[in-house]
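Bug: token stream looks shifted between consecutive jobs. Job 1:
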Amino acid sequence: MIVVLALGLALAIQAWLVKPYQIPSGSMEPTLDIGQRVLVNRFLYHFTDPSAGDIVVFHPPKGADSGTECGVPHGPRQSCPRPTSEESTQNFIKRIVAGPGDTLSVRNGHPVVNGVEKTDEPYINPCGPAGACNLPKPIKIPPGYYFMMGDNRGASDDSRFWGPVPEQWIIGKAFATYWPLDRVGLL
């Protein structure tokens, strides 16, 4: 009986409160390494809105997990302004860089939000001069959507390619790492 209760409690905590995730790719390096494990707060966004700087686990748009599919045609020097309409079953982890109503472009891998370039990002791996590192044509983030970028800006498939993510697809905010032991701490 005690084992059943303990198992039930553990499953309930994962379903509604805190869930562990393993980092699957290098898109968040140097902040999070491949194989590193994080804890994600699943209930926080029931009480507050996501904000720029939050590292979140979410379901990307369908097509993001198999390539760089955008939901609408867009210019060659512009981020994807709209995702595909269906949600993927995959879990991604990225940093929110812009939210609903913001205007966004990308310069040297840095988000330019509402005309202000965010260059104070000591947690990123710099972006090169080509491709998705420079997308000067601005897009407007739709109401209820968030624009995600990996910290490894030159090697991250993110909202630049497949568009902003609806808030309801966000699973939760990563708040701590618990493995490996030398990387344990708060994010």
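Job 2, same session, no restart:
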Amino acid sequence: MIKLQDITKTYKKNGDMQVEVLRGVSLEIQKGEFVALRAPSGMGKSTLMNIIGCLDRPTSGRYLLDDVGVETLSDNELSRIRNRKIGFVFQAFNLLPKTTALENVELPLIYSAAKTDLRAKAKAALEAVGLGERMDHVPSELSGGQQQRVAIARALVNDPDIILADEPTGNLDSNASGEVLEIFRELNRKGTTIVLVTHEQEIAAEARRIIKMKDGKVISDERRDN
């Protein structure tokens, strides 16, 4: 499903100064895997996730997503891939503050021009994460864990093949973190590929495979029997 070959990413900083964030990353993630990308802050894991999620392009290297060379696609083609194949969950919930949970979840369907009952599909996504009774509440009326579940429902509403989660428990207490991780485990049991970015060992241990990064490189790749 996901195949990265010698991916590099370099940013310009302060004029001509270049900062190399990714340094020849190669890895494969198969359909249905639950993978954690673990590294301390500033080691390239979020940059790598942005490339996997088609939010950014590598400076060099090759990225195949379902055997399609992503780095060669136009911006419009990348946008279509993001909308159809990938769901995103971030540490900051990124919910519209004056919009209900239901309306927040409907947004990706509106942008995709989906030919379906938008409201019914958004309701089903919220019910799937246990928020069927809270869908008419705005974010300020929800706990942090509930807001993150809204964000997960929004990521799920287009039935993506892959969920990319960047520090999804970073703003949550231990109880809410456990609830969010259980949702990811259940999604994975149903066949969704999960790629979870974290700096926390305990969170990474929830995955079946842990890829550790340091200084923009993969330093270990461990499979677990969770």
